[in-house]
Amino acid sequence: MAEKRNIFLVGPMGAGKSTIGRHIADQLHLEFFDSDQEIERRTGADIAWVFDIEGEEGFRKREETVISDLTEKQGIVLATGGGSVISKEVRNKLSARGIVVYLETPIEKQVARTQRDKRRPLLQTGEDSRKILEDLAEKRNHLYSEVADIVVRTDEQSAKVVANQIIDKLDF
């Protein structure tokens, strides 16, 4: 039997990685995982709690472990956390174990999609969320591009349309 391929979605918070990932998994009959949800399942606590207790460094260690474990599976779609690409180890595992899709998203869309979401610890600091997202983009966008096999913009299209664009670009 042919080896099943993996699809890993990277990009900033608010890019739609989880929603688009579910569409892709459904259409290709693959198993879907979200690294943040897996961290919550394993710890029995939400991401905000992990950040509060362990800080971002502790969270990133957990994230590395979860992504390492999940990328060893075959035939999955994985929505990664926006900051997961900070880790060179994570970038290497994503590149080596599947097709990496970067969901490129303008800051305006991120602000609109995250403004009422209380589950994003990096946006709960009391600082201007646009400024935070701009700073994160400056630090991370080149890492998303570096690791990506495919880049898709998520501007004005529905998650289903973006999922179909990705599927059309896959070499399955």
Structure summary:
The chain has helices at residues 17-28, 35-43, 47-71, 88-97, 107-114, 129-147, 159-169, and strands at residues 7-10, 31-34, 76-79, 99-104, 150-153.
Radius of gyration of CA atoms, rounded to a whole number: 15 Å
How many individual helices? 7
User: How are the strands ordered across the major sheet?
Assistant: 2-3-1-4-5
Biggest sheet features: 5 strands, parallel
CATH architecture: 3-Layer(aba) Sandwich
| Category from helices, strands and their pairing | alpha/beta
Helix content: 40-55%
Number of domains: 1
> Could you tell me the mean pLDDT?
90
* Low-confidence region ranges: none
**What would you call the shape?**
globular
CATH topology-level name: Rossmann fold
Instruction: Give the class-level CATH name.
Output: Alpha Beta
Name of the CATH superfamily? P-loop containing nucleotide triphosphate hydrolases
Alpha-carbon distance between the termini? 14 Å
Kindly estimate the percentage of residues that lie in beta strands according to DSSP: 5-15%
Order of helices and strands: EHEHHEHEHHEH
- β-strand number: 5
